[in-house]
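Narrative progress, year one. The postdoctoral researcher (J.K.) led the effort to move from monomer predictions toward full complexes, under supervision of the PI. The following entry was the first complex the group processed end to end, covering 566 residues in total.
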Amino acid sequence: MNSKVTNRIALSVIFLCAAAMAAILLSMLGYILVKGVTSISWHFLTTSASPFLAGGGIKDQLWNSFYVLVITMLLTVPIGVCGGIYLAEYAKPGRLTSFIRTCVEVLASLPSIVVGMFGMLIFVNYFGLKYSVLSGALALTVFNLPVIVRVTEDGFRALSRHQKEGGLALGLTRWHTIKTILLPAAFPSILTGVILSAGRVFGESAALLFTAGLSSPDLDFNNWNPAAPNSPLNIFRSAETLSVHIWAVNTGGIMPDVQTIANGSAAVLVISVLIFNLIARMLGKVIDQKFSGK
Amino acid sequence: MMIQMENNIVTFANNNTVNKEMPIQINVEHVDIYYGDNHAVKDVNLPIHEKSITALIGPSGCGKSTFIRTINRMNDLIPSARCEGTISYKDVNILNPKVDVVQLRKEIGMVFQQPNPFPKSISENIQLPLRFAGVRNKKTLRKATEDCLKQVGLWDEVKDRLDRSATSLSGGQQQRLCIARALALKPDVILLDEPTSALDPVSSSKIEELLLELKNSYTIIIVTHNMQQAARIADFTAFFYQGELVEFGETRKLFTNPEKKSTSDYISGRFG
């Protein structure tokens, strides 16, 4: 076989794989959207779920999903980015460092149901946080932290060594070089990683079943006092998220329009993740331009 | 492969400006540098004269880059690197671990082979190190930016787009920006590690002219692969081979009447 033929075969195989991937993605998205979009209405988005009557919405679940996501990101991003910077820039190669790196990898590959059980034992029971937004966010932190650490470390390692040398040779300290030169340069790749992990967190259900709970109090969207038991901002109340809701409705829902609710919720979940991606990408572009000059 | 290069094609544009009276600014005594077990630089003794250009030449892997990176302690970044001996500068041994490397690098600046402007605006490239050094006044910063860019002959080319990204400049412009950036901190010494090897000939000659101008105010040490470049601009030349400093002397003497056989072999193109 001559090399031209080999080349063509390799190209076709790669193209086919890429096309198959795109096709699977598009058909899944299409299926979910086509089945679900018709159930989405303003009423669906802004009405509380009803336990057994038709016509319930997903207002609280949608809010809970975003709220748990925000709290999780507030916990994971600062810690994860610092950890990643430590591994990429400060840690000396050695036993301790490779031990830390192994821990991060193991943590990243834990099944989410295990993380959920761990969260229930530690946060819910031991620390007495009960089924709450905070317990859920902490469990998701366990599950998301290694991803952020990894993404940050890779982002820093991908930068050219010349940038760091340039900063240090100009009499900048190591920290200042990291803060003013390397972090802005690595920002777009870190942001992309954070977005991808946010999608995962947003859609996570297993880790939340036993930590954030399967129910929410009747949220009063006029009460923004974080200490009130029915306030949307209270982090000590239980919070059923959208993906947990999909699971719960599908497995044990007794309302007559179970299918509609499940399909609509799935579509909302997918659309939210898509919108989220687009916004964050645009934001990343703008910030990158601002850092690097026009 | 043998590259034939006759000595007579080497020109000495700079031969009249050698000033033997210039005092020694940096004195290198018995410096040994190791990477793990690898003895990369062996017992180097070398005086660096103030306000003159010293070129370090030699074949790849001869230790010249390792050596120049030791003068502002950039080799600290390499965990396995170890350095012994004395490099005295202002009555201090630079190699002493207690030396404040941040301050040292402000006084001994460095420009690298690959132009490495920060992915920020042109003015920010110059102002960032200045701000870190404590300059806050906006007017002073703007003035310094203009002065430095004028010093490297870049001002007229970029004055209308100071807020554009430095990475949008050409390679030669980027390298001059890197030199401007190093000048902003008003160092005493500028180290250049093959500053023109990634550039086209026109940009290279611009940088060479610039260096000849800068040596009136700064001490310059340059590593170069290009022997003609050393001959054109350097007052003193040091020939490194296999980690040893084989020969050091005034450029003209080293090129026309070298003392060691390996020096004459190298400059006449018999190896390297």
